[in-house]
Amino acid sequence: MTFPDQPLDILVIAPHPDDAELGMAGAILRFKAEGKRVGVLDLTNGEPTPFGSLELRERETAAATAILSLDWRGNLGLPNRSLQHTLEARAQLAGMFRQLRPMTLFAPYWVDAHPDHVAALDLIEAARFWSKLTKSDLPGLPHHPTRIWNYQCLHLRVIERPAFVLDISEYWDQKLSAIECYQSQFITGRPTEPPTFLDRLRDQAAYWGWSIGTKFGEPFWSKETVGLASLRSLL
Fold first, then answer.
1. Which of 30, 24, 25 is nearest to 64 (CA)?
2. Quick one: which of 29, 37, 63, 87 has the most CB atoms within 10 Å?
3. Which CATH code fits 10-221?
4. Which of 100, 79, 98, 93 shows the shortest CA–CA distance to 2?
């Protein structure tokens, strides 16, 4: 696996290809517009699925990556459907943090019906701690990402109150285009009568936008206290 020449500002860790796009493609596009260096690390290849294949998923992921203009994307190769927080996986992920050196991590929200998503967060939090350890055989130099934010890619029909909602109104169309790249997951074999899966996604983004007085939004959570240097960024 090759690594970028410069450290990343932001690394989004996704249990499966498409989770980053579903949860925070709008935020990724906003970060890129602000000049941030953004990467995505998919923990698994996402297969098997009813209408997917390894080759198809790779093509879909590459197409979505191009739309998002990511600075880096990789796949850790952990097992789909049986993702677990093992010591081996923790070492692999901590090594990635030490080599990519992101300042900020984005991880799945901690309540979910999908066991891969829940296991992913446990793994990410532990790997973040291990990443800073000295006197270890992990690759790269010790590094500690300063913060973890949590994004929504839920398999539960619940509305959890977020720490904040990010305005993604000007990036919604691009977010939708990135999600539409995953035809095998969200279009093929799904009902075509409205409301479709994509209709529901738009409704959710519109709800979060409504909650902050904008057209579209994405929610984010934090286990740590959110600090502000100024009120000027508040909507």
1. 25
2. 29
3. 3.40.50.10320
4. 100
Q: Is the dihedral of CA 6, 9, 13, 19 positive or negative?
A: negative
Mean pLDDT of 40-44: 98
Parallel/antiparallel/unpaired status of strands 164-167 and 147-151: unpaired
DSSP string, 146-212: SEEEEE---SS---PPPSEEEE-GGGHHHHHHHHHT-HHHHTTTS--SSS-HHHHHHHHHHHHHHHH
- Say if residues 48 and 141 touch (Cβ distance below 8 Å): no
Residue 227 host element (H or E)? none
Q: What is the C-alpha to C-alpha distance for residues 105 and 147, in angstroms, rounded to an integer? A: 6
**Is the Cβ–Cβ distance between 226 and 163 less than 8 Å?**
yes
Q: Which residues have C-beta within 8 Å of that of residue 232, sequence separation ≥ 6? A: none
Residue 233 clears pLDDT 90, i.e. is over it: no
d(C-alpha 180, C-alpha 199), whole Å: 12
Can you tell me whether residue 88 is helix, strand or coil? helix
Residue-wise burial string across 167-188, b where 16 or more C-beta atoms lie within 10 A, e elsewhere: bbeebbebbbebbbbbbbbbbe
Given a cut of 90, whether residue 162 has pLDDT beyond it is: yes
99-157 confidence digits (pLDDT tens): 999 999 999 999 999 999 999 999 999 999 999 999 999 999 999 999 999 999 878 88
